[in-house]
Design brief:
Arc Repressor Mutant, subunit A; four-stranded antiparallel sheet; Alpha-Beta Plaits; 7 helices; alpha+beta; five-stranded mixed sheet; 2 domains; single chain
């Protein structure tokens, strides 16, 4: 079975099997369809189909990776009693020919016009999100003073919030809660936020965790108090990336700043799409 044909078959098997494991796809192709494909070739075809946006990754309660059909919709699968007779019919459907063309790296005909293959991850949304701090945000840079107060970064006399760095780290857990791979964070780009110095409130002392008598019992931080509002400007891919709805959900509750797992929780007040940043 050639690469393109095997790509069609794994997409179809994932459809009829629901959300199969790789080993279940291998079993169906070998036993029910009597295919002679090797396990490593089937695994490669599944991973290629996922990268091309044909399959999506899901996790079951045991954290096993399962696959399901994503963007390709079959109007009606062929109704055949025995799957071993399916392949010749399956490969003649228009949908299968399009999938095969994608696996062969070919252009797909669309109304007699050929279009080049688009990037797998694309269709970026540019958005501004108004947020409010629900809990104080803490600084984490050493100030070098006698009090050892951890401060916010400063640039040009202003408080510098490096959101492009912070968001990539902070959003990983939120995305995983939506079964979205955390690798998608590398495609998210956010503008850093510059704030006036007077936004920094009085220092806060935090009791740190001590393990076996080791560690710093307390640390002092500059803080930006709860109730502070600012705007996040960011872009992210929506095709094979993150939907606008999911991104707003992730931001509404994410924690930023030093000790971001405990402090700096955001609440989304408003969001809007904007022109390209």
């Amino acid at each position: 079975m050639d690469r393109a044909s095997l790509g069609v078959v794994v997409v179809y098997v994932c459809q009829i099997e629901g959300r199969p494991l790789i080993k279940e796809v291998v079993s169906t192709i070998r036993k029910k369809m009597q295919g002679d494909a090797k396990r490593k070739d089937i695994k490669f075809a599944i991973e290629s189909a996922q990268k091309k946006g044909l399959l999506s990754i899901n996790y079951d309660e045991d954290n096993n990776v399962r696959y399901s059909v994503k963007d390709i919709r079959w109007a009606k699968p062929p109704e055949i009693a025995h799957l071993k007779t399916l392949l010749p019919v399956l490969l003649e459907t228009p949908e299968a020919k399009k999938i095969a063309q994608m696996f062969e790296g070919m252009e797909i005909d669309d109304k007699e016009h050929k279009k080049p293959r688009l990037p797998d991850i694309r269709d970026y949304c540019f958005m501004q999100v108004d947020v409010e701090l629900v809990t104080p945000m803490l600084g984490g840079q050493s100030g070098g003073d006698a009090n050892n107060v951890l401060k916010f970064r400063r640039l040009g006399g202003k408080v510098w919030l490096p959101l492009n760095l912070w968001l990539k780290s902070a959003l990983k857990l939120r995305l995983r809660q939506l079964n979205i791979t955390e690798s998608k964070t590398k495609y998210i780009v956010a503008d850093d936020v510059m704030m006036n110095n007077n936004v920094v409130d009085k220092e806060i002392e935090v009791l740190n965790q001590i393990v076996n008598g080791r560690g710093v019992p307390k640390s002092k931080h500059e803080r930006i108090p709860e109730g502070t509002k600012f705007t996040i400007t960011l872009s992210f891919p929506t095709t094979n990336g993150v939907s606008v709805k999911d991104m707003v959900w992730c931001l509404n509750g994410v924690h930023l700043g030093s000790k971001h797992k405990e402090f700096g929780r955001l609440a989304v007040l408003n969001h809007r799409k904007v022109d390209r940043i």
